[in-house]
Amino acid sequence: MKQEISTEIKQELVKQALAARKFAYVPYSKFRVGAAVLAKNGAIYTGCNIENAAYTPTNCAERTAVFKAVSEGITEFDAIAVCGGPGEAEPEDFCTPCGVCRQVLREFVDPNEFLVLLCKGDGSWKEMTLEELLPMGFGKENL
């Protein structure tokens, strides 16, 4: 059964995702992204995108946050907030996770239960499930 996440926790996720965005290392794209993932135990893990001149070693904010949690033994999540946009100004539009990040999230969550908050710099957000972002995704049950 889907667990309800309070407005206060959603606001905190958005706040932390926006704060994490400030640490993005983006010398090539100049597109800063921050993410904050909520673990089932209530802990929040943040991440930013980290670019590399070779491009393929670049890591997105969402994966940075999830991998940080997994590296500390946490593999169950309820929600993620993602904020991104060009330059240092606060994002004026919604930023969605890339396909690779959607698949990484799919590894650890029920796509119908996992909440994705797409947020703007003004603190507003749009709610979606991972299933809406990754319909018919490939998971463990497909192996």
From TrEMBL:
<feature type="binding site">
    <location>
        <position position="60"/>
    </location>
    <ligand>
        <name>Zn(2+)</name>
    </ligand>
</feature>
<dbReference type="InterPro" id="IPR002125">
    <property type="entry name" value="CMP_dCMP_dom"/>
</dbReference>
<protein>
    <recommendedName>
        <fullName>Cytidine deaminase</fullName>
        <ecNumber>3.5.4.5</ecNumber>
    </recommendedName>
</protein>
<keyword id="KW-0378">Hydrolase</keyword>
<comment type="function">
    <text>This enzyme scavenges exogenous and endogenous cytidine and 2'-deoxycytidine for UMP synthesis.</text>
</comment>
<dbReference type="InterPro" id="IPR050202">
    <property type="entry name" value="Cyt/Deoxycyt_deaminase"/>
</dbReference>
<dbReference type="GO" id="GO:0005829">
    <property type="term" value="C:cytosol"/>
</dbReference>
<dbReference type="GO" id="GO:0004126">
    <property type="term" value="F:cytidine deaminase activity"/>
</dbReference>
<dbReference type="InterPro" id="IPR016193">
    <property type="entry name" value="Cytidine_deaminase-like"/>
</dbReference>
<dbReference type="InterPro" id="IPR016192">
    <property type="entry name" value="APOBEC/CMP_deaminase_Zn-bd"/>
</dbReference>
<dbReference type="GO" id="GO:0042802">
    <property type="term" value="F:identical protein binding"/>
</dbReference>
<dbReference type="GO" id="GO:0072527">
    <property type="term" value="P:pyrimidine-containing compound metabolic process"/>
</dbReference>
<dbReference type="GO" id="GO:0008270">
    <property type="term" value="F:zinc ion binding"/>
</dbReference>
<feature type="binding site">
    <location>
        <position position="98"/>
    </location>
    <ligand>
        <name>Zn(2+)</name>
    </ligand>
</feature>
<dbReference type="Pfam" id="PF00383">
    <property type="entry name" value="dCMP_cyt_deam_1"/>
</dbReference>
<dbReference type="GO" id="GO:0055086">
    <property type="term" value="P:nucleobase-containing small molecule metabolic process"/>
</dbReference>
<feature type="domain" description="CMP/dCMP-type deaminase">
    <location>
        <begin position="8"/>
        <end position="141"/>
    </location>
</feature>
<feature type="binding site">
    <location>
        <position position="101"/>
    </location>
    <ligand>
        <name>Zn(2+)</name>
    </ligand>
</feature>
<dbReference type="InterPro" id="IPR006262">
    <property type="entry name" value="Cyt_deam_tetra"/>
</dbReference>
<comment type="similarity">
    <text>Belongs to the cytidine and deoxycytidylate deaminase family.</text>
</comment>
<keyword id="KW-0862">Zinc</keyword>
<keyword id="KW-0479">Metal-binding</keyword>
<feature type="binding site">
    <location>
        <begin position="49"/>
        <end position="55"/>
    </location>
    <ligand>
        <name>substrate</name>
    </ligand>
</feature>
<feature type="active site" description="Proton donor">
    <location>
        <position position="62"/>
    </location>
</feature>
